[in-house]
Amino acid sequence: MMKFYDTCALLNLQEDAFLEPFAISSITLLEIEDIKTSRNKDEDIKWKARNMSRLLTENPDMYTVKVIYNEQAIDLHEYLMPNSPDGLIAFSAYLFNVTTPIIFVSDDLNCRHIAKHIFKLNTEGSSRKTDNDYLGYRELTLSDEGLTMLYANNGLFTKDMYINEYMIVRNESGDVVDLLKWNGKNFTNVIAPKIKSNEFGNVKPYNGDVYQKLLLDSFDNHQITMARGAAGTGKTYLALAYLFSLLEKGKIDRIVVFCNTIPTLHSARIGFLPGTRDEKLLESSTGNMLSSKLGDPYRVQQLINENKLVLLPMCDIRGYDTTNMNAGILISEAQNADIELLKLSLQRIGADCKCIVDGDYHAQVDDMNFAGANNGMRRMSEVFRGQDLYGEVCLQNIYRSRIAEIAEMM
């Protein structure tokens, strides 16, 4: 049976709506146009509207528009209904249903109630899984009996788990008793690798941080890892420490840092910076980050001169290919990339390379064009989770300073 989408469901579904032919109301087209240019809508919904306009243009054969005319809208009064957008969209579906049986799909409860109770249509919500709270792991607190059940029958606790999703198991006292990873058939044990390098020394999870243990395991066992977390949780420090340990052991030949040097949100621009590309990058947030982690900017410059460290601005990334470089790729501050830019960056990664993507798309987006549904990290997580080469961990604990920890509450 054909689906008839209201505006809310269509915007939530995005590309998923075009998997099979569907119908919409002409009122939905008007609402999408209004949302695109509205000053009162947030960037998330405005991006959804812009993207939907593009999808509708690119896929004209996948949908039918039921046009509502003025004289038809008057008929709503017979149902004691005002000519509101919700009423008109539901009425459009009712008229379309006369000749073509449909299921009316809406994520707006009011619109769904009108369609179901006034116009007697079959209704449902959209089926898109908007799992934006995915952390890369689950936490489970069990009694002794529950622990016995866990080890006797994994399937009782693994419903809807993704491949390479972690499980933190605690007892009733809150103590961590096991760290597990789901491989699609059973659990495997998690053991954080030992990291040692001349640049960073011996690196291990701070205070035995359980989330950092998971992240280090993901670095070591997956070709690509997304490291998420607030400022001060250690995501970039651990990523660089791990990559430098590989570099010094000869497991990779160089480290390539993809960077998109967006000025910090709400800050003033400082204007043109003189110098070469590397000199400009060393004066940017990327240079500041590397200098703070490696000790000083002179060490960063030395590594660049030795071709052990490459800084690549995303503005120059098209045509770049890391195949046969045997490199460790760090896509730093990746929250400052939209879907197309991060997609292009990931398409540069060769099969012989290991990639770490770090950032915080909840709190550190510096350009609202990259916010909400248009955020590259958010979309990457949705697409990559469950792939056998991918892991994701969201760090929870801030260690930079007590000031940083308190500031997170602002």
Topology:
Blueprint: E1 2-5, H1 7-13, E2 22-25, H2 26-37, H3 43-58, E3 63-66, H4 70-73, H5 85-97, E4 102-105, H6 109-118, E5 122-124, E6 137-141, H7 144-152, E7 166-170, E8 176-182, E9 187-189, E10 195-197, E11 201-203, H8 210-221, E12 224-228, H9 235-248, E13 254-259, H10 277-282, H11 285-294, H12 297-305, E14 309-313, E15 327-331, H13 339-346, E16 354-359, H14 376-384, E17 390-394, H15 402-407
Parallel strand pairs: 1-2, 1-4, 2-3, 4-5, 6-7, 12-16, 12-17, 13-14, 13-15, 15-16
Antiparallel strand pairs: 7-8, 8-9, 10-11
Structure in words:
The chain is of the alpha/beta class and about 400 residues long. The protein is about 35% helix and about 20% strand. It contains 15 helices and 17 strands. It has a six-stranded parallel beta sheet, with helices on both faces. It has a five-stranded parallel beta sheet with strand order 3-2-1-4-5. Strands 6-7-8-9 form a four-stranded mixed beta sheet, with no helix packed on it. Helix 5 packs across helix 6 (about 110-120). The longest helix is centred in the N-terminal third of the chain and has 16 residues, at about 45-60. The two termini are about 50 Å apart.
